[in-house]
Every structure is written in structure tokens, then in C-alpha cells.
Design a protein that fits this description.
Layout (H helix, E strand, L loop, with lengths): L8 H26 L3 H20 L4 E17 L10 E2 L1 E15 L2 E21 L4 E26 L2 E27 L2 E10 L1 E2 L2 E2 L1 H5 L4 E2 L2 E13 L2 E10 L6 E2 L5 H4 E14 L3
Parallel strand pairs: 8-10, 9-13
Antiparallel strand pairs: 1-3, 1-14, 2-4, 3-4, 4-5, 5-6, 6-7, 6-11, 11-12, 12-14
């Protein structure tokens, strides 16, 4: 990717306009996905991806491995009608590994798709009193593995001899594995008892009532969001720091309870750092 001099203002104005339009299109995708209108979303996504594939056919493409790590947690958004508040979540560290392409569109505008394996999740500390004299303290941890497809547009910026980029775009992710782990201590008048365990997460959009009542862990498998950030290029190595904000509610519907998923929303929130080695 070439980096422009700051004096190229006329081309820069066009590129920034195109960039803003792309971000607005991403927001439209997010609204469509949140409203569960998957057919329209798939058509719109196909049009955007097909456009960039056509551009890439005549461009000098570079590609290579991409590795990094994520710091992720859940952003909870419960209904105000509930008697209890959202839990305070904590970031969890996870790996991210895959491949990245850099497809030039204009002199300093590039399309940068990636295919990644990433691990996300959340941590929640637990402290509450059960009926009687029992006090429960401990933590819960959730780890979910995703296959993720970020589709970013990047703008190259040259400041002196330093080469930077800013990027933004949607990501599409599908959960392939997950585990819910808990570690509690029950204290009843000084008598302590450890309660530990873990269970695999089942990924479904709708949960049977009997399974929900048995507190089995469920989560929606599909996730869509937007990621954005900054990068710095050193020869063939591209370093990125960014933030990914999920727009799709991960809480499944519960059969017989139309309001549960909307009353107990939660979303992926992720900080990520990566390094990509790009080769022609």
C-alpha cells in the first residue's frame, strides 16, 4: 500500500467521502442483522464482497499470516424493568491467528479482509446471599472460539518517514466451541464448601424451556459488528491496534418467553492487537 503526501487534498477528499459512506453502510448492515432480517443482509453483503473481489482482480494483492491477541468481555444491556442490574464483566485474554490480504483500490486506499480464529469471552465475579445464612462468592468465566471474517477499509497516512493507517469495517463471526466455567465458595455460618465445574456451551438461536430452567449454557452462534483502529507499517510488517464492537445480541430466545432475550441482551466487546507479514 502506498502512502500519500499531505498535499494530495482533492483525492483525499474523495477517499474520505468514500470511507464515510462505507461506515454508514456497515451501520445499515448492523441494523438489518439486529432486526433478524437475514435474507436482506445476505444480499447486501454479497454485493459489497463482490465489488471488492472485482477490484482485487486488477490490483497488486499482498497477503500473509496474521497473529495477535484479544482482550474481550461482554457488554450487558438489561431491561430497566428488571429488579436486578447487569453484572460487571471483566476482560479475558485470548489468542487470534489467521491470514490477511491487502488489496489496493486507490493510491492510498486498500481493502483488507482477514480470516481469523479468535477466542473471546468474559469474566464475572460473583458475590451474593442465598436464602438463609448461605453466602456465595467466586467467579464465572466464559470462553468462546470463533471463526471470524473482518472486512476492513484502510487509509494510508504518511507523516515524514513514518507510515500509518487507520481502518474500519464490519466483521462476521461464527462460534465453533465454547465453555462456561464456575468456581464458587459457599459459606454457611463458617462452614465452607467449594462448588466448581464447567460445561460446554450449546449454540442455538432458541432454547427449549426445560433446558433453560436447568441453567444449561446457551448462546447464539452468529455475531456481527464493526471494528476500527490504527496501524503502523514497518517494511512488510503491519502492526494494528483496534476495537471491535458487536451489534448482535448473543442471548438466545427462550421458548414460551418472548421477552427474555430482549430483556437480557449482551454483546461482544473486544480490544485486539495484531501483526501481519504481507508478501506479494
Amino acid at each position: 500500500m502506498k502512502f500519500p503526501e499531505p498535499t494530495e487534498l482533492s483525492v483525499g477528499f474523495f477517499v474520505w467521502s468514500f470511507y464515510v459512506a462505507y461506515i454508514l453502510l456497515i451501520a445499515k448492515f448492523a441494523l438489518i442483522f439486529e432486526n433478524q432480517n437475514h435474507k436482506i443482509m445476505k444480499k447486501a453483503l454479497f454485493i459489497v464482497v463482490a465489488f471488492f473481489i472485482m477490484v482485487s482482480l486488477s490490483a497488486q494483492v499482498t497477503f500473509g499470516p496474521k497473529v495477535g491477541f484479544t482482550l474481550s468481555k461482554y457488554g450487558y444491556k438489561y431491561s430497566s424493568s428488571l429488579e436486578y442490574k447487569e453484572p460487571e464483566s471483566k476482560f479475558k485474554l485470548g489468542p487470534a491467528i489467521g491470514f490477511m490480504m491487502n488489496v489496493p483500490i486507490l493510491e492510498f486506499l486498500s481493502f483488507q479482509p482477514s480470516l481469523m480464529y479468535s477466542k473471546k469471552g468474559t469474566g464475572v465475579d460473583v458475590a451474593f446471599r442465598e436464602s438463609g445464612d448461605a453466602v456465595i462468592t467466586g467467579y464465572e468465566r466464559v470462553r468462546v472460539s470463533y471463526l471470524e471474517l473482518p472486512l476492513n477499509l484502510s487509509l494510508g497516512l504518511k507523516i515524514g518517514t513514518f507510515k500509518f493507517q487507520i481502518f474500519a469495517g464490519p466483521y462476521f463471526a461464527y462460534a465453533i466451541a465454547g465453555k462456561h466455567k464456575w468456581d464458587y465458595e459457599e459459606n454457611v455460618n463458617g462452614n465452607r464448601k467449594d462448588i466448581k465445574g464447567d460445561e460446554k456451551i450449546t449454540f442455538k438461536n432458541e432454547v427449549p424451556t426445560e433446558d433453560f430452567e436447568n441453567t444449561k449454557p446457551y448462546q447464539r452462534p452468529f455475531d456481527l459488528g464493526i471494528n476500527f483502529g490504527v496501524g503502523y507499517k514497518v517494511k512488510s510488517v503491519l502492526l494494528n491496534l483496534g476495537y471491535a464492537m458487536g451489534f448482535s445480541n448473543l442471548q438466545p430466545e427462550v421458548q414460551g418467553d418472548d421477552s427474555y432475550a430482549t430483556d437480557h441482551k449482551y454483546y461482544n466487546r473486544t480490544i485486539f492487537v495484531s501483526a501481519a507479514w504481507l508478501f506479494e
